[in-house]
Amino acid sequence: MTDAKKRLDELIDLAIAGEEIIITRWGKPVGKLRAFRQVQTLQNASEEFLAELERSVRDYDR
């Protein structure tokens, strides 16, 4: 965590470039750093998947 604080600008640049940064405290993962657009893309994909699943279940019940 201390290292991440010192290198935050560099880590943000890596995240923007597409890398997923795992933040650890005392050797245990406590967080993830990735570009916001990646998070939005994952969220949109999840919402689309759930909507399609809901349509499929609804059609199956007919």
Share of β-strand residues? 15-25%
How would you characterize the largest beta sheet? 2 strands, antiparallel
Low-confidence stretches: none
Q: Please write the string of helix (H) and strand (E) elements.
A: HHEEH
Task: Tell me how many strands there are.
Answer: 2
First and last CA, distance: 53 Å
Number of helices: 3
The order of strands across the largest sheet is 1-2
Looking at the structure, what is the overall shape? elongated
Mean pLDDT: 81
Percent helix range: 55-70%
Global structural class: alpha+beta
Q: Which value, in Å, is the CA radius of gyration?
A: 18 Å
Q: What can you tell me about this protein's structure?
A:
With 62 residues, the chain is of the alpha+beta class. Helices cover 65% and strands 18% of the residues. It contains 3 helices and 2 strands; from the N terminus they run H-H-E-E-H. Strands 1-2 form a two-stranded antiparallel sheet. Strand 1 and strand 2 form a beta hairpin. The chain is elongated. The N and C termini lie far apart (53 Å). The model has no long low-confidence stretch (mean pLDDT 81).
